[in-house]
Amino acid sequence: MESPSLPDWTTAPVPSDAWRVPSRHGRSNRVIAFGLVITLALAGIAGVAALAFGGSGDGYPDEWDPAVLDLVEYVERERGLAFNHPVTVRFLDESAFRDEISFSEDDIDPAARATAVGDAAVLRALGIADGDIDLIEVFGELNAGLTLAYYDSGRDEIVVRGTDLTAPARVSVVHELVHALQDQHFDLDRFQALDSDESDAARALVEGDATMVEDAYYATLSPTDQRAVDAAHSFDSTDVPEAVPEILTYFASSPYVFGASLVAALDAHGGRERVDDAFGDPPVSEEHLIDPLRYVLDDEPVRRVDVRLREGEEVRDRDSLGAFSLFMILAERIDAHDALAAVDGWGGGEYAAYDDATGTGCIAAVVAGDDQSEEDELLRALQEWADAGVPGAASASQGPRGISIRACDPGTDVELVTGRSSEAFALLAVRSDFFRWYVDGGEDIEVAWCVASRIIDLSTLEQLNDPDG
User: Fold this and answer.
1) In Å, what is the CA distance from 164 to each residue of 68, 168, 233?
2) How many angstroms from the chain centroid is the CA of residue 147?
């Protein structure tokens, strides 16, 4: 078979100021940190939504804007589905676009503010953020800074940042047209009822599908246009606003970075029909983001575990604790390869956020392994993680229902973030790139995953980024 070109490492995430990611087109109504969901839209912030879900979609135009008709036809042809009806495409200048996606303090009710304060405490408890974090400001900065376009299912429209149909804008419109097409055929709104682990996995399917079509369209552009798209759709860590903990950008980008490999595996295993079927029976776990074969080859269901708090502890928030989130938490303090080896045995997880008797934000979680030996390895990694943090602030122990994790906020004056999760995210992204590279070249998906995983197991990130190979 003819070998495809090597992955483009300029768009693969790498640490620190060299870190670059593929384009982010969709909006997010959540800043996700391992399953902690900052549900700002639901808690009182008006007008922000993931892909702008919700509402009735009967206000669509009679015909497509002629300026985007060729893109509509391309998306239908490449995706193998036809639109049921046109959608509006609006192009806004920078000021109008920011007004569209921004919110003010007047939009935030006290419940949303209290939720954000409590969730910031839990991020510090886990060691993945430090200092006095204003998560509402963080959410606003992420939304305003990273969004290039979005699809609003409630209004049947695509909103694009910029008034000219440049090459970057055309690529953004292609991506959002796929979301409109998905919505018309598969009803994306229904994914909003899922818990965070399920929702993150489903979003990877949604974004991966759109990214596959986007990448195919990108390949048709001239080298000059491709360079323009690369410049517009990439950023490094210096572009991330200072208010935003860097690790949150990794959580926000994970559906794009890993979703395309998931969809590539589905396509290789059964063609576009298999991808379509996945929208009816979507992936249910973050594990399916970082190991797509677990989903494509019908892995065993995720084990459900329950967190039980002690007397006097009242749950403030409860949700699933997924494999990718746990990996990122572990890798902030322990070796990334060790963290990955441990999380590969993840079998299920749940967390409960609460305030202790002193009013300190805390988290209790239970994590299970696929079997006892996998759980033992997870326990060793979690105990190493707890020991590497602030003394006495976190613990991990074996319990009757799995590994019990406890952690409380050590305060805003303690330096907690090591930055090691940057390398960890890069390792996962490079593995995903290698896997997709082999699959796109016609390799069997199991062989492709085995080889990609082995490369990562035997390589440091420095070696993977060595320009001399």
Assistant:
1) 12, 10, 16
2) 14
> Could you count the other beta carbons within 10 Å of the beta carbon of residue 248?
23
Give the model's pLDDT for residue 240. Answer: 58
Alpha carbon of 245 to those of 129, 203, 257, 408, 411: distances in Å? 6, 22, 19, 19, 16
Please state, in angstroms and rounded to a whole number, the distance separating the CA atoms of residues 370 and 372: 7
Residue 315 exposed, middle or buried by CB count within 10 Å (0-12, 13-18, 19+): exposed
Contact between 205 and 186 under an 8 Å Cβ cutoff? The reply is: no
CB 260 within 8 A of CB 213: no
DSSP 3-state of 197: helix
CA atoms within 13 A on the CB side of 141: 16
C-alpha angle 117-120-121 in degrees, rounded to nearest 5: 90
Phi, psi of 33 (to 5 degrees): -130, 95
| CA contacts within 13 A on the Cβ side of 43 | 18
Amino acid 10: pLDDT: 32
DSSP state for residue 340 in the 8-state scheme: H
The pLDDT score that the predictor gives to residue 199 is 83
Question: Which residue intervals of 126-243 are DSSP H helices?
Answer: 135-146, 167-186, 196-218, 223-233
CA dist 183 and 454 (Å) reads: 37
Largest CA distance in the chain: 65
Length of the chain: 469
- How many angstroms separate the CA atoms of 181 and 212, rounded? 14
Under 8 Å between Cβ of 53 and 192:
yes
Q: What is the pLDDT of residues 378-397, one digit of tens each?
A: 999 999 999 999 999 999 99
Structure tokens belonging to residue 337: 């390869």
In angstroms, the CA 293 to CA 439 distance is 12
Tally: H helices and E strands in the chain? 17, 10
Helices 94-101, 135-146: inter-axial angle, 10-degree rounding: 140
SS (H, E, C) 283-301: CCCCHHHHCCHHHHCCCCC
Strand-pair category, 402-408 with 149-152: unpaired
Count the Cβ atoms, other than its own, within 10 Å of residue 113: 17
Question: To which residue do tokens 């613990």 refer?
Answer: 395
- What one-letter code names the amino acid at 203? R
Residue 183 is classified by DSSP as H
- Tokens of residue 165, six digits: 């149909």
Residues of the chain with pLDDT below 70 are: 1-58, 104-105, 145-146, 195, 234-243, 300-301, 469
Q: What's the confidence (pLDDT) of residue 363? A: 95
